[in-house]
Amino acid sequence: MKGVLLKDLYIAKSNILVTAVSLIVLGFGLSFLLETGALLILAPAVCVTAVFISITSDAGSKWNKNVITMPVSRSQIIGEKFIFYILLAASGILAALIPCGILAAGGRAVTFQSLWLYGSIGLSAALLSGSISLPCAYLSEPEKSQIVFMMSFLASSGIITALVYAVNLFLPVKDYTLLTFCIVLAVACFCFFLSYKTAVKIYQKRDIV
User: Any idea of the CA torsion for 36, 40, 41, 47, to the nearest 10 degrees?
Assistant: First the structure.
């Protein structure tokens, strides 16, 4: 799996670099209009688009038809995309934290609570979106995978809203905002893991095209 992951990183490296630099520059620009940590909501979703670029690239080069002849299991082929997705989401968070750290060092008010809140929202949205879009990217035409991702991101926003309302039935969200979004993040992580397990079972006996 390591070789497959390195292949995707090599293909997407220029896209990842440009995205990371753009997020850093955007962080400084938005700091005059919004709270500094607000970029953490957008950053993971922006970075993970490279996964769907790699899926489209694999389909165009017929990589999937070749890799199944190698000593790599189908569960590893699918699992690698999920790992790649997590790594990119984490890189988005790290890129967004750079301007936050610099601005905080310069005297700008940046609190751990706000960073945790925005980061958990961004990661939750990205993980929920990925749990829908990654399996669907293989069920639909690979060329449409990025469209599927955008639609799933809208769905993830609705899911987060529903989860917040559900938590509010037991806890007043306004008083326990951080705890609420920790619960949302935990649910998102579980959904992502469940999506991986489900995808592995589906594609274990299915041709990857």
Answer: 140
Query: Residues 122, 45: contact at Cβ < 8 Å?
Result: yes
Three-state DSSP class for residue 155: helix
Global confidence as pTM: 0.83
* pLDDT tens per residue across span 74-106: 677 778 888 889 988 998 888 888 887 777 776
Single out the residue of 56, 8, 46 nearest to residue 122, CA to CA. Answer: 46
Reduced to 3 states, what is the DSSP secondary structure of residue 46? helix
Three-state secondary-structure class, residue 34: coil
Q: Where are the alpha helices (DSSP H) in the chain?
A: 2-30, 39-47, 49-61, 63-67, 74-105, 112-139, 145-168, 177-203
Residue 132 contacts residue 155 (beta carbons within 8 Å): yes
Other CB atoms within 10 Å distance of the CB of residue 144: 14
